[in-house]
Design brief:
transmembrane helix; transmembrane
Amino acid sequence: MSTTPSGAGDRLVQVGAIVFFVGAVATLVTVAPLFLGTDPFPPIAYGVCMLMGVGFLIAGAGVVRSAWVNSPKRAANP
C-alpha cells in the first residue's frame, strides 16, 4: 500500500479510468451482435459507447491539473 499523498488530479484520473472502462465494456457489448448476426441494440446503447471518450477527457484533465499544480514555476511562487 502506498503512503504517498494524493495529488491534485489523482481523483480525476481514477474517475476517468472507471468511466473509460465502462464505455469500453459497452462498446464490446454493442459490437457483439454485429458479429453474432443478431438484432442490433437500440441507438442509446451506441451513446453509452461515447463514455470511452468522456473518460479519456476526464483522465486527461486530471493529468493536466496535476502537472499545473506541481509545475516548478508555481512551486517557486508561494
